[in-house]
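Task card 7
Instruction: Convert sequence to structure tokens.
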Amino acid sequence: MFRAARQPSQPAVPRSAGAAAASQPYDAGAERSSPTPTPTDPPADQRERAAAALRLELSGTEAASDGRAAWHLADGLAVSLSRVTCHGRMAVEPDELVGWGLGRDEAFHRASANLRAAELPAVSRLAPTDGAELVLIVGAGVDAASHVLWLDDLVDGVPAVGALVAVPNRRTAMVHPLGRRDDAVEAVNLLLLMADDAYRGAADAVSPSLYWWRDGDLVALGGTVVDDEVHIDPPATFLDALDGLR
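Output:
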């Protein structure tokens, strides 16, 4: 069980760039070392149709390393471009953006706008009489969990210190807005147990780990569940934030 015990030798994990860092491509390896191609100039209607079909999907970093257009969010977590077609969702490769005349930044922001303009996922609160409040974000589409990138627009009452977030699969996100220290410690354990269960066997699995959302960025807290027992060694920056809670 996580008890917020500070480890003196624990290294701090730098804050990872979140949705605001659309200009930072996901480094999938050597194939990313070549210069970014310059977009061409296709017919305006073709370009607009392509841009209107773009969406964002969360995935693990391993899944995002297959050559698709993607951005690194945090350890183990990436967001990639997909497009809506008559055959369902299709991953988008960087060369396709070139053919449509779209730069990476523009494609990211168009996909973001398209997703935010679509039907929002359902948001429900689990508020026990005494204990950690959890917020569930659930949708039928494979981009439902992507809305955590704009968490403060979707969930009321997210404080400046941020929230705990789990994204076990693309249709589900679990959130605890940070408030009381004891509630945060309880939420770490609850969210990791719930995320581990929702991650296992999911066809659209993302990550069983826990993340810290703060001001649009996501920081990996990690965590594993072994024999129903939570093991986590969060970065010092998160422990410092916990120390600041009442």
